[in-house]
Amino acid sequence: MNFDVVIIGGGLAGLTCGIALQQQGKRCAIINNGQAAIDFSSGSMDLLSRLPSGQKIQHVYQALDILAEQAPEHPYSIVGKQQVIAKAQQFEQLAQSLNLDLEGSTLQNHDRITPLGGIRATWLSPNSVPTVESLSSLVEKQIAILGIEGYHDFQPQLLVENLKQHSQFTDYEFTIGYLNIPELDYLRQNSREFRSVNIAQLLEHKLSFEDLVEEIQQAAGSAKAVFLPACFGLDNQDFFNSLQQATGLMLFELPTLPPSLLGIRQHRQLRLRFEQLGGMMMNGDRAVKAEFEGDKVARIFTSSHQEEPISADHFVLASGSFFSNGLVAEFEHVKEPVFDLDICGSKNFDYSDRFSWTNNRFAAPQPYQSAGVVINSACQVQKKGAVVPNLYAIGNVIGGFQGIEQGCGSGVSIVTALTVAEQIGGAK
Known about the structure:
The chain is α/β, with parallel strands linked by helices and 428 residues long. It is built from 12 helices and 20 strands. It has 2 domains: 2-105 and 264-426, FAD/NAD(P)-binding domain, CATH 3.50.50.60; 130-254, Rossmann fold. The protein has helices at residues 12-23, 60-70, 75-79, 81-97, 132-136, 156-163, 185-188, 196-205, 209-220, 238-247, 261-276, 409-426; strands at 2-8, 28-32, 102-104, 110-113, 119-122, 124-126, 142-148, 173-179, 225-229, 250-254, 280-283, 287-293, 296-302, 310-317, 328-329, 334-335, 343-344, 372-373, 380-383, 386-393. Strands 1, 2, 11, 12, 13, 14, 19 and 20 form an 8-stranded mixed β-sheet that branches. A 4-stranded parallel β-sheet has the order 8-7-9-10, with helices on both faces. Helix 1 packs parallel to helix 11, helix 1 (12-23) packs parallel to helix 12 and helix 4 (81-97) crosses helix 12.
């Protein structure tokens, strides 16, 4: 099998890159091993929320200069400030064309409400997710938090108590209620099956819509704004929008314990567009080894194609970090298992010194989370000190940053994915 581009990994980075390349007329295949990190995400996408020094930021453009000083090994510092902003803005346009229902801008982060009642700065959020800005417009400062009877992956009491700790919500009135939704009795009999995805799947096929609307209205009482767990609408946001229109209330949905319905929706919509553009998804497959000719990758072998190699002009590594086995920690070192690429980290992490991998304080950022492959400004990777000209890395397999602590995991995936698509599109 031969393609223009083979992408290893079908998460946010791989699909974004694949869509951009297919739009350029390239023939792409994505080797997709299984569920990606996006399936467990909140649905919001961070560009940069915090500097390595711990300083919270609102304006990303100005903060990128400081980031380059504090963390020259960060992917943003490597690809450059102008490229980061340009590719983030390109994704905003792509998201709009895909009807991802995202709101936000590179101009300034906004504050979203987390499922535990925290406030987190982010770049893009589904327009169904509550933000400090959207709630500040409420004339009557009353919010009803509605859970689902027997459903433990969403805790209204904890949410309310934590929200009350923030100065923005000290003068708000919160009420708590629970929806019964009789159609869910089947799932209640087995708590292991009582999860957001199962609820959404069941309600798509077996639901009295009018009864649900009436139950939400009654449980909301006099409140005009309602928080619900994200359990309504698996493929997209249409079902939730219909609920909002029918109830006449300001409905908001919050992600629950993973897997996250909000992330799964985005994953499905990205994958659908990639396939509509003619891209090939090789699902349930895994890249296992590669063969080089000179300084270039010539072909790879997968678990399902161990005798029949897959060839391409360009290869893109979007295999993620430790979560998806894009990186592997052995006793003495961290390695990238398919191409055995050079590994970097940060000033606090040495991939060959196991004692530098962890922080004694469990809740602190762990140094090993900054592990990943070395890239240059074109996102080309490095092997034994030499650049591999037709092999690129995108997303969380890249080293030099703390995606969770710095609030930049999604942003790095998107910026590097679109940077590589541009590089390959202009390659001769």
